[in-house]
């Protein structure tokens, strides 16, 4: 009996296309099935989302009848814990300022480290030059 090779090699471009499709981000699809049960949807029209999320969490905590399952914040599904962390995170402007400060401090540190060798060399040469002048003066007075 002849052995049959059951393994078929698939072209690499097909596998790559499937992998790329799996890793692509897709916006959340229709949420109508969630509305078929007793569900409350809250939507904020504010430009800043962080205060609205924080207010939603406060209302859910105060009310014993609302059980928060999660939320859709900036096209991402989040658990209540993730929403809590998101509401406590700084705004985008503050985060950019912090990042700029961190980058600026590391740049100034690098600049000072690069300049330190040149400054040490200049100081040593200056002291050496002063030392020669002093020894020359001593030699002149002795002669």
TrEMBL record:
Record's keyword terms, sorted: Ribonucleoprotein, Ribosomal protein
Gene Ontology, cellular component aspect: ribosome
Residues making up the signal peptide according to the UniProt record: none
Record-annotated membrane-spanning stretches: none
Entry keyword annotation includes Protein biosynthesis: no
PANTHER family, sorted: 39S RIBOSOMAL PROTEIN L10, MITOCHONDRIAL (PTHR11560)
Record family assignment: Belongs to the universal ribosomal protein uL10 family.
Record protein name field: Large ribosomal subunit protein uL10m
């Amino acid at each position: 009996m002849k052995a049959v090779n059951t393994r078929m090699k698939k072209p690499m471009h097909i596998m790559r296309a499937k992998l790329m499709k799996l890793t692509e981000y897709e916006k959340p699809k229709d949420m109508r099935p969630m509305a078929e049960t007793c569900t409350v949807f809250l939507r904020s029209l504010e430009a800043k989302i962080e205060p609205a999320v924080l207010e939603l969490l406060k209302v859910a905590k105060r009310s014993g009848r609302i059980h928060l399952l999660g939320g859709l914040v900036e096209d991402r599904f989040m658990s209540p814990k993730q929403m809590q962390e998101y509401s406590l995170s700084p705004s985008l402007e503050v985060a950019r300022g912090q990042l700029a400060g961190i980058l600026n401090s590391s740049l100034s540190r690098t600049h000072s480290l690069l300049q330190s060798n040149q400054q040490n060399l200049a100081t040593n040469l200056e002291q050496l030059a002063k030392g020669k002048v002093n020894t020359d003066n001593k030699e002149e007075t002795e002669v």
